[in-house]
Amino acid sequence: MIFYFSGTGNSQAVAQVIATRQQEELVPMIQVDLTVPYLIKENENIVFVFPIYAWRPPQQVIDFIKQIEFENYYNHPITMIATCGENIGETLAVFKKMIHQRKWTLSNAYSLVMPNNDLRYGNIDARDEVQRKLKKVELELEKINQNLTRRATGIYQVEKGPFSYITTYVVGNLFNRFARSTHRFFATDDCISCKICEKVCPIRCITVSKKPIWKNSECTQCLACVNYCPKSAIQYGKRMSRKARYTHPLVAWHQLNQNRKPKD
């Protein structure tokens, strides 16, 4: 069972590779009915794939893990795969604590450096750098799949980065409390009212009439609306207008966070 959450396709692309190789069901977290227990098959791997926002799991991932109920769970191995721009801080510690509270078994954890998609504080990677990172991830996923196939345990290959406690427990907490407002998002006159932003928003906080309107709700700051806009009309503040956008080349907007069965 491969559960995933994705903003611009990086985590979804990783989850798709794992699901295809392991012949496991691919499940977007935002589509799961949390009122119904999820049946876990015998000898099934459970994998959580998600991006890192401000050196922490997205709040939607935290809420999902706290609420999901498994039927027929008996020490099934759980693997965490966190996609990031550079490092993940103390995300592993945060994840371990949640898993322990659910009385589940965490077997392995990995972090994968993906092409940058956060335009608020920088630019996307150059094309050759994107290709270099994706090629490296392809090789790393081969090793992860080998470990899953042979049921390896106790593998923790994560890049915490410098000052990891501060980045996760100070910066990350401040981000969740104060930086998730939607008030800095707006659309320029280049908007064509296509409603792609509304459709890719994982928590449905966007509605479009002539232009998108953001509700001042629990925005994930995933920037799916920004990066998937076909006209680059959606901005976050005044520094983004001339910046290029990034989405994973294998995940089109209509595929984002959708159920996709692994190939035979």
TrEMBL record:
It comes from Turicibacter sanguinis. PROSITE patterns: 4FE4S_FER_1 (PS00198), 4FE4S_FER_2 (PS51379). Pfam families: Fer4, Flavodoxin_5. SUPFAM superfamilies: 4Fe-4S ferredoxins, Flavoproteins. Coiled coil: none annotated. This is 4Fe-4S ferredoxin. One of its GO terms (cellular component) is plasma membrane. InterPro entries: 4Fe4S_Fe-S-bd, 4Fe4S_Fe_S_CS, EFR1-like, Electron_Trans/Redox, Flavodoxin_dom, Flavoprotein-like_sf. NCBIfam families: ferrodoxin_EFR1 (NF038196). Keywords: 4Fe-4S, Electron transport, Iron, Iron-sulfur, Metal-binding, Transport. It comes from the Bacteria. GO terms for molecular function: 4 iron, 4 sulfur cluster binding; metal ion binding.
